[in-house]
Amino acid sequence: MQSLKIYNTLTREKEVFQPINAPYVGMYVCGPTVYNYVHLGNVRTFTTFDILYRYLTHIGYKVRYVRNITDVGHLVGDGDEGEDKIGKMAKLEKLEPMEIVQRYTNDFHQVLTQFNLLPPSIEPSATGHIVEQIETTQTLIDKGLAYESNGSVYFDIAKYNEQGGGYGKLSGRVLDDLLTETRDLDGVGEKRNPLDFALWKKAAPEHIMRWNSPWGLGFPGWHLECTCMSTKYLGETFDIHGGGMDLKFPHHECEIAQGKGSTGKDPVRYWMHSNMLTVNGQKMSKSLGNSFLPAELFAGSHPLLDQAYSPMTVRFFMLQSQYRSTLDFSNDALKAAQKGYKRLMNGLRIIKQLEYVADDTLTPDEKHISEVTKGIQGCYDGMNDDLNTAITIANLYNLLKKINQLYMGQLQPAQLGVTVFAALKTTFVSLIEEVLGLIEEKNNNIEAFANGMLALYSEYKAAKQYDKVDQIRTYFKANGLVIKDMKTRIDWAYEE
Ligand code: AMP
Ligand code: ZN
After folding, report:
1. pTM of the predicted model as reported, rounded to 2 decimal places
2. Which ligand 1 atom lies nearest to the CA of residue 278?
3. So what's the pLDDT on residue 443?
């Protein structure tokens, strides 16, 4: 098995990945809050973990990948006070909250499919786990790590730290600094300490998303759902937890506190955070008004775009940088990505068609063999070095040079030998398709092709070259189409 190193946000080091219960791997990724359309920034983060999921599977692990849907508890402003993001949309649009949830969950799935992201093994939702969230809140109260105040329940950070919890260790925040930063606006007067965060919130009369609980009508705090769902499906301590960099604090810091507080164990071995997609250096976000919807990219309709880009071009663009560096959106970079992606696809088509031909007159060419072997190793070294897809892609281009030499007849398969040739083929195809998830976007514009052929058909007919005319008819038929040669015009139709 390959030795994969991943950067662990918790230890701030690249560590060799060793699952708790190999070959099984438990992996949890914070999913979207489904109150608006998913933008390209969100897609970047989910693509990072799609690559991780794909690579772990590729190198032989059996991964249970849990990615949730946040459909309650994430409040406008990301704090403990205010309207629920989904509830707010539901009111604005005069819809049921679950209609909002369904609409944006459908969009999320559709977009991720367009970008060829694999579905997770389990996709649980926060509203489907209210019982578990009430239970964990009760456990934390019983352990003296949470307290009820005016119908809401808060996590007690001071108590947690007295017991050696270490709140702040993931994000590197110092408690005293946090205290000075906090403008005690959330849960004013209800909290013992301004840093305490809500596990359960009392629902104000106008708050439409609410459930019964031992503390009255209310709803769960945003951070709790991920603790409950990850524990339920992956266990009290599991291998990998991921999300965007902006979730490190407070969301993931609070998840650690809730998990450790309720079970006594650190919930996660490796914390992974994907960096932000930026526009002119600023984080892409809906609220900043600088976000692109995938549909705008595919149509080229956004004012900052000067042309349309296909899903695979955009996926390739994202993979050209390592997930821990920021990635700035730019037209030029996308144009370069379009070229780069097509070059890879041409290589893919060629290598799939190339077969090994034995030739006793040729001897193995050590220089070529060593270059191919180095290229293959380089591809894996890139992936193993904290999923450095940029390095992997650079090495795929090195392999592409060899593939083109084979194609042009400048190099014969027999000069590589059967083993190296097979390794070149397998590596190139599987890394591009299975691991990077880059697939050929076929040009399905049947209209343009058929009309071009019809123009030829008319020319041959006028020139009375009937053998050519028949050839074209046969070609249409072979593709499930027929030529309609009518008195007034010539057209084509699907063969009925
Ligand atoms: P949200 O639906 O806002 O909770 O975001 C879903 C995921 O997208 C989270 O993991 C965020 O960290 C991530 N995310 C949001 N904005 C960006 C961005 N500009 N670049 C990369 N990831 C982002
Ligand atoms: Zn989460």
Report:
1. 0.94
2. 19
3. 78
CA of residue 252 to ligand 2 center, whole Å? 7
pLDDT single digits (tens) 147-156: 999 999 999 9
- Are 199 and 146 within 8 A, CB to CB? yes
Cα separation, 368 vs 420, whole angstroms: 10
Amino acid 185: pLDDT: 57
Residue 44 beta carbon below 6 angstroms from any ligand 1 atom:
yes
Ligand 2 centroid distance, CA of 199 (Å): 14
Residue with tokens 């983060």: 45
| Domain 5-274 is found in CATH 3.40.50.620 | yes
Kindly report the CATH class assigned to 279-435: mainly alpha
Close Cβ partners of 20 (under 8 Å, ≥ 6 residues apart): 26, 237, 238, 239, 269
Looking at the predicted structure, is the pLDDT value of residue 57 above 60? yes
**Measuring CA to CA, how many Å separate 449 from each of 208, 452, 459, 467, 479?**
54, 5, 16, 20, 11
Residue 267 near ligand 1, beta carbon < 6 Å: no
Q: What is the pLDDT of residue 378?
A: 98
Tokens, residue 267: 């919930």
- Residue 390, pLDDT above cutoff 90: yes
Q: How far apart are CA 309 and CA 296, in angstroms?
A: 9
In angstroms, what CA-CA distances link 406 with 98, 162, 205, 352? 56, 67, 72, 12
